[in-house]
Amino acid sequence: MQVIFDTGSAWAWVFSEKCKSANCPVQNKKYLQSKSSEYHNNEKTAQMLQYGKGAIIGHPSTDRACFGGDNKHCLDQLSFLTVIKAADISSLKGSGLIGLAPTPDKGDDQFNDPLHKGVPGFVAQLKHSAAYEKDFDPVFSFYLSNDTNEKGKMIFGGTDYEKFAKKGLGE
Predict the structure, then answer these.
(1) Which are the contacts of 57, defined by CB distance < 8 A and separation ≥ 6?
(2) Is the pLDDT of residue 61 over 90?
(3) CB under 8 Å to 104, separation ≥6 — which residues?
(4) Closest CA to 134 of 107, 110, 157
């Protein structure tokens, strides 16, 4: 599943498998929550996010989310929205969005019951997570490439020093 990383937003969301073509862009892949045994949501509550003239409405949800290509570095209950309705975002080239902007600290209470109190910001969840802190440094980094033969990349919890540090500097 490919998502867009957005520095102007704080929340994470994906198009739900329940978001039908009349309400969501047809070309975008959907999150298949029915295939996850750890997925939970609250269909009695919805959050709306505005993006310029576009908007999404989704249910607060949690599921297991892993960083990297393996299942060794995972958060058991990452909170996000499963989008059931969207308007004027058909040009989005992904299955959802991961917001990287900070959010105001509302205390630990914001993390206790996201299915009923609303989904906290993505970066705030990483900062608050003991599991994430155990496996990763509290940073994320980007490598942007102008070379069509070398893709850019994003790293959560570390830095690829070979991409920007002089040889021999390391960590």
Answers:
(1) 46, 47, 48, 83, 84, 85, 86
(2) yes
(3) none
(4) 157
Place of tokens 């155990």: 134
Residue 62 has a CB neighbour count (10 Å cut-off) of: 19
Are the CB atoms for 113 and 129 separated by under 8 Å? no
CB 120 within 8 A of CB 103: yes
Phi-psi group of 107: left, alpha or beta (phi > 0 → left; psi -120 to 50 → alpha; rest → beta) = left
pLDDT digits (tens, 9 = 90+) for 87-126: 988 888 889 999 999 887 666 666 777 777 778 889 988 8
6-9 contacts, C-beta under 8 A, 24 or more apart: 6/97, 6/98, 6/99, 6/100, 6/101, 7/100, 7/101, 8/99, 8/101, 9/49, 9/51, 9/97, 9/99, 9/100, 9/101
Token pair belonging to 121: 């910001």
Question: Which uninterrupted H or E stretch holds 156?
Answer: strand 153-156
Say how far apart CA 133 and CA 91 lie, in whole Å: 35
